[in-house]
């Protein structure tokens, strides 16, 4: 489903054509702002390796569909191939290239592997790959490597893919990252104007946006899908909550109310026979189970099994088919797109998992935090819901532990002992024309594999690192001009050539036996910044938690 058609899917059973609601977004590459048309032309010419990044609901998939359609209408010399990575799973052991071929063969039965290979080598295809961030964690590292391998092996074929923002793309050889920008006010007004909705109510919302509502809630309304949800929320409540988790709570309440025929006191019965509270409880448990399994889209059998597990855990004697009817038809929080069911917005899944994290006390916060993905909004919503719980039960104890471990370490002499608490490897990359200005011509970047055996030991520490990163831009996991040796030294240390720079095969593990290499690469300065920032964070957290505790104790004593 096109994210930009969300409201139509809530209001009607028929989808809205892309061209009816599409509003071209803008993009940012380094300091350059580009229109969708300009980026499309560059991808076909200079930027033949492009990662389009954006937040959930920002229109990444819609832009790729626009790109696919545009390449056909304009008669480009490439044959576009649109492939959705969500269709991959760990059971199918075929390579990404094989599965892309099979997706084409489904529509062109006479198409052969030999023709596909010939077209790739000749540069006849335009690979448009959607939703790297929606692949399961056990597949993501492998798929990322395969995309990079395809890019190197078939340099004549343009490759463009989408993902939520991630630092890992710094290490992708030859790829340029195009950041999809939020809608500005003009784009937002144009988009809302195109949505199929009651004209009087829509006009009232547009007037509020023109006056001050856009500036007051720019974080929400600048996101196409959230803007559509905001229209419904505004219609129901006459206002928009400022806090993200409250906004999604209101959105969910709107979806529940959409189930009713009118504003009267009569409420239609759900297919499942549940009341509102029971349905929300079942939905939350379904979100928890699916989030823990890294399932963001489902085949019919998969979703029935997960719903069945949720109902069994809760002791509800309800037919899973009936609850699925409620979630897709009655409240439209799930939708069917081809052979798959998915959330109308993945943030609903994250919101309900965050509610579980904050309300549950059976599991420790560390246990629940192990399941977070960096690209998600879960941790931000948890912090917003209960900052004290997050800081007291997880962040401060973890920071204390790291600082004790780092206390006697000289970061500039033994950077590996600090770095490998967060990252697994060091790699090199060549600056592209549109990369950030602070990158040297050849730079060093640090990454952690998404393979479970590599990721899990560092996962909790990474939560601390990402928290730090929000407040310290100089902690981004790559070297800066003042830290980095010249190109010849970098290539020599990584034992590679300029053409092969960035290949995973040349990675240097962050281990003691590579210590001298890491020091030469400038890792000591990065490690020192991390150590100093952690020390500062502990002092601030100690002060904050102490103040919070004293304030609460005083109020409790006053009411004795």
Concise structural overview:
This protein has helices at 6-11, 18-21, 36-44, 60-73, 96-105, 113-122, 137-153, 185-194, 199-216, 218-221, 224-237, 244-258, 276-292, 300-314, 320-330, 346-359, 365-369, 378-385, 387-406, 415-419, 452-469, 487-493, 515-520, 523-558, and strands at 26-29, 32-35, 49-53, 79-84, 125-130, 159-163, 176-180, 297-298, 334-337, 340-343, 425-430, 442-447, 508-509. It has 560 residues and is α/β, with parallel strands linked by helices. The longest helix has 36 residues, at 523-558.
Please tell me about this protein's structure.
This is NACHT domain protein. The longest helix is centred in the C-terminal third of the chain and has 36 residues, at about 525-560. It contains 24 helices and 13 strands. The chain has three domains: about 25-180, Rossmann fold; about 275-385, Orthogonal Bundle (Arc Repressor Mutant, subunit A), CATH 1.10.10; about 405-535, no CATH class. About 40% of the residues are buried. With about 550 residues, the chain is of the alpha/beta class.
Strand arrangement within the widest β-sheet reads: 2-1-7-3-6-5-4
What's the CATH class label of the largest domain? Alpha Beta
CATH topology of the largest domain: Rossmann fold
Biggest sheet character: 7 strands, mixed
Percentage of residues in DSSP E strands: 5-15%
Q: Mean pLDDT across all residues, rounded? A: 86
| Unreliable segments of 5+ consecutive residues | 1-12, 261-266
Supply Rg: 25 Å
How many strand units? Answer: 13
Assigned CATH superfamily of the largest domain: P-loop containing nucleotide triphosphate hydrolases
Which architecture name of the largest domain does CATH use? 3-Layer(aba) Sandwich
Proportion of helical residues: 40-55%
End-to-end C-alpha gap: 57 Å
Gross morphology: globular
Structural class: alpha/beta
Total individual domains: 3
Protein name: NACHT domain protein
Pfam family, one: NACHT
Domain NACHT: 48-166
